[in-house]
Amino acid sequence: MLARLKTLGLDLLFNQRLLYAHALPFLNRHVLWPIVTGGGRAVGFRESMLAHRWLDGLHGLEVGPSVSNGFGLPTRNVGRRDKIYEREQLQAVGCFAPLHIEANADALPVPDGSQDFVLSSHVVEHCPDLIGTLREWFRVIRVNGILFIIAPHRDAAPSDVGRPLTTWETLVDLHHRRVTDADLADQGVAGHCHYHVFSPTTLKSFIEQIFGAALVLVEEQERDDKVGNGFTLVYRKTAAEPAST
Asked: Cα–Cα 20 to 30 A to 242, which of 6, 17, 144, 179?
């Protein structure tokens, strides 16, 4: 009976436009989030000690946050509201990661060089224009700031098994055409499908081609210390502008 009532309550919150737009975020941020996380404690998967080593004491953004895969860092969370992800998090741990800034990953409404870091976990594969997205993250990080990326191994998702790795030529074409989720709608539900498949070698080579010496790889993990199904790349920004465009 209690499970049925909970389902009915969630259905009401997610299906009524005004409740979803206003009441649910308020309830989540001011009631559920403090109860579940104690104001920010990570739940679900373990925290990343690598992230703490590089980012503790700094102020930055997490793009595409999930409370069930949290880092336990006082980040400002950036993303678009998504009913599927929000409901999954609610059902898994009792709340969902609140968004402090509602924006697309490739259009962050913050000033140049204003952030100590940008952090993302399992986000880059969901970004249609990866070059544009990475350049936007680079823009908002200060010189000597950190770009911290966790990306899934090429076969981590069953839907990626057997798919070819994304090529540099594909990324350049998508960037030149300024593609969006709407342009790639045939590939799956926006925010839930992987537009790209990487290996550590290919993603590192893409970042080097985009930024040259303006982003320096300072540490990496072949298997991330978070969920364990991806790899981690940690970069330091060394110049205000990338070496190439």
From this structure: 179
